[in-house]
Amino acid sequence: MVALEIEVEPGEVGFDADRLRRIDRHFEDYVTTGKLPGWLVLVARQGKIAHLSTHGMRDIESGKPVESDTLFRIYSMTKPITSVAAMMLYEEGAFELTDPVSDFIPSFADMSVYTGGPARNPQTRPATEPIRIWHLLTHTAGLTYAFNYLHPLDELHRRAGFEFGMAPDLDLAACCDAWAEIPLLFDPGTRWNYSVATDVLGRVVEVASGQRLDEFFRTRVLDPLGMTDTGFQVDPADADRLASLYSADPQGKARLHPKHEQMYDTAFEPPKAPSGGGGLFSSARDYHRFQQMLLRRGELDGVRLLGGRTVDFMTRNHLPGGADLETLAMGSFSEVANAGKGFGLGFSVVDDPLAAKVLSSKGEFAWGGLASTAFWVDPAEDLTVLFLTQLMPSSTHPIRPYLHQLVYQALAD
């Protein structure tokens, strides 16, 4: 394995080294006060790593520190990889973005929309629009997540066995069929709601390619990019590198997640239903390579996954009427603040840096994961940033806005 290390002096790529160290001082306090078990931060500019730091523990109980090769559950940071996989097939003519999802998953034909009533007796009407592939990519399909706990339809997902993640006894095809039996929150294309849409997209990838999602990822995305640490399971030989999973107690302190043991054991087993919405494990080196491919508009080290214009297209705001998430989202859990941000084909996209009141650039695209991980790519500044830790949920502490302001204030060119 190639070691991850700083590749350039900060000043050579426009950073003030002393100001960059403010990132470490700020987040070291998160560990000292017990908010986070430990973390890794990587900042790169012009394709070179200018800042790489770790602090705290990957496993508090055994005293093992976070190291540059620690493995993390990246949860929803899987979604951009699934979106890239789907768009690779799009480039090959496997589908059009306007194709109905039912062309690939017949159970999604003739969907109904919730109009009222409790979960035990929901009232519905026929949907006015079929779910199309672009709806899956943009979370405008009308689907939801069991863990949202905001709507009767969320409860229907829990009743179907999707309390957290995939239903344990179903393969991906069966999961999609189960979701298709649940009414939609709204007519596709009219609102935004964080959901299992990317898991459904993963099934579209399977059907369109004729490969299981994990096999498509390995042969078409991960191996070509040299992402050797990334997959839907952890090699038992790497068990010691896997960070433990923590959740916040009522005081906001990191405590071992109640289901950690169960989730640790299953980390080494191939999943029956690979989750394109949240199932990957990865390392900082691997995800950094994925970010660099995106920054370079689809190419890295001579390997091209996507055409440059496709990446440009994916990272524009595709929400109806150019609306931002603040306007169109239904209030569900999200991995970003909503003001000033639209949504592209797999990423949040900054349309108005002023609206969010956080330092950023127009055109920056990003996403995060349930265990407080986060990344962004800023083409305007030739910048990528990665933050890895293992605390659920990601809304526990304000990590991402502080990380933004601490990175951008360090730019001195």
TrEMBL record:
GO molecular function: hydrolase activity
Enzyme class: hydrolase
Keywords, in A-Z order: Hydrolase
Record-annotated Beta-lactamase-related domain positions: 23-407
Gene3D superfamilies: DD-peptidase/beta-lactamase superfamily
Protein name in the entry: Serine hydrolase domain-containing protein
E.C. no: 3.1.1.103
Domain of life of the native organism: Bacteria
PANTHER family reported in the protein's UniProt record: BETA-LACTAMASE FAMILY PROTEIN (AFU_ORTHOLOGUE AFUA_5G07500) (PTHR43283:SF3), BETA-LACTAMASE-RELATED (PTHR43283)
A Pfam family this chain is assigned to: Beta-lactamase
